[in-house]
């Protein structure tokens, strides 16, 4: 049910914690407010456990998102969930906002809080084990796997930093990259010197294995050699 007709005072692109917080603030100021989001909750919805969100010592990601929704419903906020913005066009004193799904909206102000889209490997086991060992944020979830063997997949600075961070948590880290790593020389030197990190450069992840949680990752190189590594988590960076 829509609460407003005509141009919105504020339209927010993104339904994660930042976007929903902006919506609550705007609605409390009696501004007509809309949120356009592909998925409400952002990356929190994929977390099995969250312990770094102030006010909750430990909470399931799905429960945190449920509480986000419940909080926002207390206010007159129109939510266009399942829609993805593909254009924002100035039009006089307004902005016209268009979505891939064909919706056209107008607003006097637009807040972009679209966040970060997680990279995906599109391999067997990835989707099924998200939140159960497959993670897109070592900073968020690394502490849950302290002392366990883990894999980090990526070729940029974020992957290198994730591997170093997990090593500090006493994890044995398998760092997997299809191509040579791209990161500042200082980070690469730290990586080479870290005895807990084993690099698999020129390898791909072809499957993530596990029943209820991640148990192993299957790797393959250009020569079609395969190697299975027992890990408790896979961090895709």
SSE map:
Blueprint: E1 8-13, H1 17-28, E2 33-37, H2 61-72, E3 77-81, E4 85-91, E5 94-99, E6 104-112, E7 134-135, H3 138-141, E8 150-153, H4 157-168, E9 173-177, H5 185-193, E10 197-201, E11 203-209, E12 216-221, E13 226-230, E14 233-236
Parallel strand pairs: 1-2, 1-6, 2-3, 7-14, 8-9, 8-14, 9-10
Antiparallel strand pairs: 4-5, 5-6, 11-12, 12-13
Question: Any overview of this molecule?
Answer:
- The protein has 5 helices and 14 strands.
- The chain is an alpha/beta fold and 237 residues long.
- The strands form 3 sheets. The protein has a 6-stranded mixed beta sheet with strand order 3-2-1-6-5-4, with helices on one face. The chain has a 5-stranded parallel beta sheet with strand order 7-14-8-9-10, covered by helices on one side.
- Strand 5 (94-99) and strand 6 (104-112) form a beta hairpin.
- Helix 4 packs parallel to helix 5.
Distance between the termini: 38 Å
Can you tell me the CATH architecture of the largest domain? 3-Layer(bba) Sandwich
Please name the fourth-level CATH homologous superfamily of the largest domain: FAD/NAD(P)-binding domain
**Envelope shape:** elongated
Round the Cα radius of gyration to an integer and report it.
Answer: 21 Å
What count of domains describes the coordinates?
A: 2
**SSE series:** EHEHEEEEEHEHEHEEEEE
Q: Average the pLDDT over all residues and give the rounded result.
A: 93
CATH topology of the largest domain: FAD/NAD(P)-binding domain
Kindly report the oligomeric state of this protein.
Answer: single chain
By helix and strand content, what is the structural category?
alpha/beta
């Amino acid at each position: 049910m829509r609460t407003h007709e005509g141009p919105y005072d504020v339209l927010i692109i993104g339904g994660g914690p930042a976007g929903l917080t902006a919506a609550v603030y705007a609605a409390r100021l009696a501004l007509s407010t809309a949120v356009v989001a592909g998925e409400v909750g952002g990356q929190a919805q994929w977390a099995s456990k969250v312990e770094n969100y102030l006010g909750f010592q430990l909470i399931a990601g799905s429960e945190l998102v449920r509480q986000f929704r419940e909080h926002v419903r207390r206010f007159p906020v129109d939510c266009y969930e399942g829609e993805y913005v593909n254009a924002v066009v100035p039009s006089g004193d307004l902005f016209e906002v268009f979505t891939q799904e064909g919706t056209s909206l107008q607003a006097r102000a637009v807040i972009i809080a679209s966040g970060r889209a997680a990279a995906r490997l599109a391999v067997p086991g990835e989707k099924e084990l998200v939140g159960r060992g497959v993670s897109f944020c070592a900073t968020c979830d690394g502490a849950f796997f302290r002392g366990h063997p883990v894999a980090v997949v990526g070729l940029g600075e974020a992957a290198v930093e994730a591997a170093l961070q997990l090593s500090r948590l006493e994890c044995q880290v398998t760092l997997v990259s299809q191509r040579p790593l791209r990161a500042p020389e200082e980070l690469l030197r730290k990586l080479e010197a870290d005895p807990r990190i084993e690099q698999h450069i020129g390898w791909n992840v072809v499957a993530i294995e596990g029943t209820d949680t991640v148990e192993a990752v299957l790797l393959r190189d250009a020569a079609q050699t395969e190697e299975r590594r027992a890990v408790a988590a896979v961090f895709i960076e």
